[in-house]
Design goal:
heterodimer, A: mainly alpha, 8 helices, B: mainly beta, four-stranded antiparallel β-sheet, 4 helices, globular
Chain lengths: 170, 436
């Protein structure tokens, strides 16, 4: 039997207050734009509002929201393929100019983020969910809609790539 | 066991991820009254669905009527918005979020900002309606909204400006005490930028003779810190900030003169960046033999656009030519973008403006793909990272100010007509908002 509607409304508000900020922050790490991240997460909650009466297990609401954000990030990225290709073409015809960084002071944060940003999308999502959102591998698998073993392999490949890119042999 | 790599990942992601300001209360209110600000892929079709979802739940639970929740308006419904308030000359707008913004203006018929002539208004619905904020401080030249919702006001009315900060939406203001060794000037040509919660000011270091030497200040609410030790060691101008809080700084050598009076002769132009609110700087590019003036329009994640005024001398050139360059690696390498032309301003007329580093930025990068330029009479936008452009707003010559925002909500202000405009599609189309 469906829960009383008033409980559903309170459930959504409680979920919003519990999850909204965290979802915005890791959506930002995946998209690189805080405004866009907020819009995307708002879209997910708007979807929850539409479907809340069909939500059977309130305890699963966190997983539902995470999966919603991941799905929207993935659909957005695939939709932006042409834009990505445009950027790749641009980078291909870049003219090198004088690069002055004698002290090698390129910020650690910027360097790591750039390396994460070069990962394939599924690997990037797995890395952000693991090392920013502190999700377990089964939770990441649920968000990505794949098996836990797949998450393990994605994380392993991502770590290998990052270790190579960042020169991390420790 | 956590490896060294995992520690680096966790540390960098937490530092970056914790930076953006998120206002949960405002967002929750916004979810119930969404009017198109927060839509992603298909705005025209998604809006009604969102509103219908909101309505369904609200009706079921709170017994509100559907009409009380509100029906989404068409994106261009505001095109017939009423004209600006007569008698008010609006001087500065700022938005602290896609919905919350502030405007200040002068209600006296003549002259610049004067004490007693200042009006301050606020909007909490993306500029649809405005309310008056009582008792603004003295004459305000410029308002700047911080990521934490705070407001910085640069007071004018004289050559030397004061700075005030408000943490409650402009209802009360606290003075920011600037050390006497610094010279903070009011006016549109002094670089004031927001980096996260902080205001960063290119304030000349007061020496003899007047105003020589860089004097960067970092202001957090009312706490002032001189960033002199971190300031790039040359005449440094052209300060700009990205949406991610990164700072970009153009400096020139040799150090020849005072702030505002630097020689335009060729020297070495150096680009510096900072990702920690001006605490430390990284020298990323040094190009010898160039005149020094330039502006950088930062996007996110290491991408920025720079206007080339070396060959054109202005933005745009007299024949409408615009030359831009782009970097995708934090300024280390730059690529020339295809040259394009905008509607040429009348020769020698007001549309032809020489771009100086002191000037309010004439470009706005919404992200790596979307770039807006207030060049000539129009706002010109690119949605493909600078490969192609189209004119989107026909304004008055040289009167459009790009106020900021993101792809889903950008704002521009026509100084001449007093009209505020917004775009929800990366600058492709613009609608007039209800001006306060």
């Amino acid at each position: 039997m469906a829960a009383p509607a008033v409980d559903a409304s309170r459930l959504v508000e409680a979920a919003f207050r519990e999850h909204y900020e965290a979802l915005c922050r890791w959506a930002y790490l995946l998209l690189g734009d805080p405004g866009l991240a907020e819009e995307l997460v708002m879209d997910v909650f708007a979807g929850l509002l539409r479907n809340v009466t069909g939500l059977r297990d309130p305890a699963a609401i966190g997983g539902y929201l995470r999966q919603g954000v991941v799905n929207r990030v993935r659909s957005r990225r695939s939709g932006g393929w042409r834009e990505q290709q445009t950027l790749l073409r641009l980078r291909g015809r870049r003219t090198q100019v004088d690069v002055a960084d004698p002290a090698g002071q390129y910020g650690e944060e910027q360097r790591v983020l750039a390396a994460v940003g070069r990962l394939p999308l599924r690997q990037r999502i797995a890395i952000v969910l693991r090392y920013y959102a502190d999700l377990t591998e089964p939770e990441i698998a649920a968000a990505l809609g794949c098996a836990t073993g797949t998450v393990k392999s994605q994380l392993s490949r991502a770590r290998s790539t990052l270790a190579r890119d960042l020169g991390d042999t420790a | 066991m956590t490896s060294h790599l995992e520690h680096r990942l966790s540390s960098a992601l937490r530092t970056a991820g914790d930076r953006p300001y998120v206002d949960v209360d405002t967002a929750w209110q916004q979810l119930g009254t969404d009017d198109g600000v927060r839509r992603t892929s298909t705005p025209r079709r998604r809006g009604p669905l969102i509103a219908a979802g909101v309505a369904a739940v609200m009706v079921a639970t709170l017994a509100l009527t559907v009409t009380a929740i509100g029906t989404p308006r068409p994106l261009d419904a505001a095109l017939e918005a009423p004209a600006p308030t007569p008698g008010v000359s609006w001087t500065s707008f700022t938005f602290t979020s896609p919905t919350v913004g502030y405007a200040t203006g002068n209600i006296c018929p003549k002259g610049g900002p004067v004490a007693g002539c200042t009006v301050l208004r606020a909007t909490h619905d993306s500029g649809r309606t405005w309310t008056t904020v009582p008792d603004p401080p003295g004459p305000i030249e410029q308002l700047l909204g911080a990521a934490d919702g705070g407001l910085y006001a640069v007071e004018g009315g004289g050559f030397v400006g004061g700075i005030r900060w408000s943490g409650d939406g402009g209802r009360s203001w606290a003075p920011v005490v600037v050390p006497r060794s610094f010279s903070v000037e009011a006016g549109p040509y002094t670089p004031y930028v927001i980096s996260g919660d902080d205001l960063v000011v290119d304030a000349a270091l007061r020496q003899q003779p007047y105003g020589c030497g860089p004097g960067l200040l970092r202001i957090h609410h009312t706490t002032v810190q001189a960033a002199a030790n971190a300031t790039p060691p040359s005449v440094a101008q052209g300060l700009s900030a990205g949406r991610d809080g990164s700072l970009w700084w153009i400096s020139a050598s040799p150090q020849r003169a005072c702030a505002g009076r630097v020689s335009q002769s060729a020297g070495t132009v150096t680009t510096w960046t900072s990702t920690d609110t001006a605490r430390t700087w990284r020298r990323v590019t040094a190009t010898p033999g160039h005149p020094w003036w330039s502006q950088v329009f930062p996007a996110d994640a290491g991408t920025a656009f720079s206007v080339d005024t070396v060959s054109t001398g202005s933005l745009p050139a007299a024949d409408g030519t615009v030359r831009l360059a782009v970097t995708h690696d934090g300024g280390r390498t730059w690529a020339g973008l295809p040259v394009f032309h905008v509607r040429a301003p009348p020769t020698g007329g007001p549309g032809l403006r020489t771009l100086t580093p002191f000037e309010t930025p004439r470009g706005l990068a919404l992200d790596a793909h979307h770039l807006l330029l207030a060049a000539g009479p129009d706002v010109t936008s690119s949605t493909d990272g600078g490969l192609t452009y189209r004119a989107t707003v026909t304004g008055n010559p040289d009167s459009m100010q790009l106020l900021g925002g993101g792809v889903r909500k950008a704002f521009a202000f026509d100084v001449t007509t007093g009209r505020l405009r917004s775009s929800t599609d990366g600058g492709a189309t613009w609608a007039a908002l209800t001006t306060p």
